[in-house]
């Protein structure tokens, strides 16, 4: 499959009601099966999409948690050999004003993923709003109390890994430095690669044999995040 022609395309922070999805997205060649979720009564907030070449067996929305499911943060598609989850994890916010709800989300989301994993393997794609280790952001020392790098959020990601999931990029490239997926629009951060790795392809451990590569497409413009491509032989 050529680059840019995925079997499944996961989008996060779409900020778009289902009814407002642009026609050119609806008409994307090779991705006719499209599933969108948006925040209830909050236009321009959150939202995710999952677009597929082949029709999923089943699609579900949310994680079964009323506190967070109104925000349109998760869509899950079941395929014959695996689940694909597109997720946009809540940001803890400036001054960490939303850290507590974020941590509640992390716990509920882990339970949800474990439930899927008990049925068949999982590929989780998304903006997980955490840089897991010091290697995953440009300035770790200055950001110890910043949203996305608090000890609590990092521990949440560690718990995901301890539950039998694998950060595919870091598994393949344990020493890769400067591998970031987000750069603030302020101060020319992207040109200087002052960034964070917030976007992940996380797989059930038993999918590692099928994992061919995970690429951070940092040259792709158009957002303050860049795409991540996971290549799996399933």
UniProtKB/TrEMBL annotation:
Compartments, as annotated in UniProt: Nucleus; Cytoplasm; Mitochondrion
Record site: Important for catalytic activity: 199
Keywords, ordered alphabetically: Cytoplasm, DNA damage, DNA repair, DNA-binding, Endonuclease, Hydrolase, Lyase, Magnesium, Manganese, Metal-binding, Mitochondrion, Nuclease, Nucleus
PROSITE patterns named among the record's database cross-references: AP_NUCLEASE_F1_1, AP_NUCLEASE_F1_2, AP_NUCLEASE_F1_3, AP_NUCLEASE_F1_4
Superkingdom field: Eukaryota
Entry's cofactor comment: Probably binds two magnesium or manganese ions per subunit.
A Pfam family that the UniProt record links to this protein: Exo_endo_phos
Cofactor: Mg(2+); Mn(2+)
Family: Belongs to the DNA repair enzymes AP/ExoA family.
PANTHER family named in the record: AP ENDONUCLEASE, DNA-(APURINIC OR APYRIMIDINIC SITE) ENDONUCLEASE
Protein name (database record): DNA repair nuclease/redox regulator APEX1
Species in which this protein is naturally found: Loxia curvirostra (Red crossbill)
């Amino acid at each position: 499959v050529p680059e840019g022609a995925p079997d499944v395309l996961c989008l996060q922070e779409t900020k778009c009601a289902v009814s407002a999805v642009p026609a050119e997205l609806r008409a994307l060649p090779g991705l006719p099966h499209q599933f969108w979720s948006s925040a209830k009564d909050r236009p321009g907030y959150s939202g995710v999409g999952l677009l597929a070449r082949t029709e999923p067996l089943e699609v579900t929305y949310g994680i079964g948690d009323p506190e967070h499911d109104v925000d349109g943060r998760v869509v899950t598609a079941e395929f014959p050999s695996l689940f694909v989850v597109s997720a946009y994890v809540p940001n803890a916010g400036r001054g960490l004003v939303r850290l507590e709800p974020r941590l509640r989300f992390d716990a509920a989301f882990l339970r949800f993923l474990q439930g899927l994993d008990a049925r068949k393997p999982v590929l989780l794609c998304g903006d997980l709003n955490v840089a897991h280790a010091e290697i995953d952001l440009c300035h770790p020392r200055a950001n110890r109390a910043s949203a996305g790098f608090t000890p609590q959020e990092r521990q949440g990601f560690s718990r995901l890994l301890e539950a039998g999931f694998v950060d595919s990029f870091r598994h393949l490239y344990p020493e890769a430095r400067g591998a970031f997926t987000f750069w603030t629009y302020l101060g020319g951060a992207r040109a200087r690669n002052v960034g964070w790795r917030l976007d992940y392809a996380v797989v059930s451990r038993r999918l590692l044999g099928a994992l061919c590569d995970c690429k951070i497409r940092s040259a792709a413009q158009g957002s303050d995040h860049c795409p991540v491509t996971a290549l799996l032989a399933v």
